[in-house]
Amino acid sequence: MDPQYSAQDIVRCDLCETPIPPMCCDICHINLCKVCVGEHLSDRSKEHKVVPFEERGSTINYPKCEKHSPKICELHCKHCNIPICASCVSSGDHDQHKKIDIMKILTRNKELIEKDLQELKNFICPKFQQASSKVPAQKAGVKQHSLKLTAALNKQGEALHKEINIILDLQKLLDTDDVCLVTEYTSRNEKFRSLPAQFKVTLPTFSPQEINREQLYQQLGSLSQLVITYPLTDEEAETTEEHGDLKKSPGVASSPPARPLSDKPRIITDILTGYSNKYHVSCLSDEEIWTSGDNNIMNLYNLKGELLNSVQTKSGNMPYDIAVTRSAGLVYIDYDDSSINLVSGTQIQTLIKQRGWTPHGLCSTSSGDLLVIMRSHDTKVVRYSGSTEKQSIQWDDQGKPLYSFGYHIYLSENRNLDICVADCYAGAVVVVSATGKLRFRYTGPSCTFPESICPLGITTDSGGNILISECRKNRIHIIDQDGHFLRFIHNCGLRTPRGLCVDSQDNLFVTERDTGKVKKIMYYR
Question: CB neighbours (10 Å) of residue 297?
Answer without folding.
Answer: 16
